[in-house]
Design goal:
alpha+beta, OB fold (Dihydrolipoamide Acetyltransferase, E2P), de novo design (two linked rop proteins), 2 domains, three-stranded antiparallel β-sheet
Length: 256
């Protein structure tokens, strides 16, 4: 079997970055064909470094990467889409951080998935528009869950499998979807789910973004949708998402 080429070129979104050594940065990258990678951008922290402006968080970058045994090396980096609004607006940037962390948790290193890469690029672009960032997050969550094989059951009871009637229901993270009142276990792990929230989740799950983006969602409904989404994501990932706490603090500060 021929050995893979020493270097390869790929588009990449920068999910995370951290200081490495005296002048370098360690980047976590999402690519369409090579999956998630970790790569060193040498000298990126130097003010005069040519790479410094091309390795910003959440940017879409065209990269030439040299393979390494454990860490790859960024040889060249050319900025394709900076998504400037994500650095100019704290709220939208915080949601971008949430989307990136969620993608990071759902993807494994070297696991190719072009659909997940395209979803992230699209969602970062949507955050730069005038769209409701919370709506972007809810749509993105459902699409990512679907791509990862964890799409919640929203049309049939996750326990009894009968079609759901148009009424208030419950959502069970362990069961992977909506549970009707007749099969409700009575435990706190099953969250109340209003009929309006169920209809909204179904709409988000079955319609394209260009249609979804026109929805006007009340704050109370947003809160219900977020509560259900985060409960399910926490169960699937078996961990809390760190970016959620910052988002909540930011919302409280802006509401004061």
């Amino acid at each position: 079997m021929p050995r893979p080429p020493r270097t390869f070129r790929t588009p990449a979104v920068i999910l995370r970055r951290q200081d490495f050594g005296e002048a370098d940065r360690l980047l976590t990258l999402l690519t369409p064909r090579h999956g998630k990678l970790r790569a060193i951008a040498k000298g990126a922290r130097k003010p005069i470094a040519r790479k410094s402006g091309h390795v910003e968080l959440f940017a879409l970058v065209d990269m030439l990467i040299a393979r390494g045994r454990e860490l790859h090396i960024v040889v060249q980096a050319e900025l394709q889409e900076p998504f400037l609004a994500l650095r100019e607006d704290l709220k939208r940037g915080s949601y971008a951080n949430y989307l990136a962390e969620l993608m990071d948790r759902f993807t494994a290193e070297d696991d190719s998935n072009p659909a997940e890469f395209n979803l992230l690029v699209q969602a970062l672009g949507w955050l730069c528009e005038e769209a409701d960032p919370a709506l972007v997050a809810r749509y993105y969550e459902l699409r990512l869950l679907q791509l990862a094989g964890f799409a919640p059951a929203l049309h049939r009871c996750a326990v009894g499998q009968e079609p759901l009637q148009p009424r208030d229901q419950f959502f069970s993270p362990p069961e992977g979807g909506v549970v009707c009142p007749e099969h409700h276990s009575g435990t706190e792990r099953e969250l109340p789910l209003s009929l309006t929230a169920l209809k909204t989740l179904r709409y988000l799950q079955t319609h394209p973004w260009q249609t979804v983006r026109t929805l006007h969602v009340r704050q109370t409904l947003h809160q219900e949708l977020e509560r259900v989404a985060l409960a399910y994501l926490t169960y699937v990932l078996e961990r809390r998402l760190q970016s959620v706490d910052f988002l909540r603090r930011l919302r409280r500060e802006q509401d004061d």
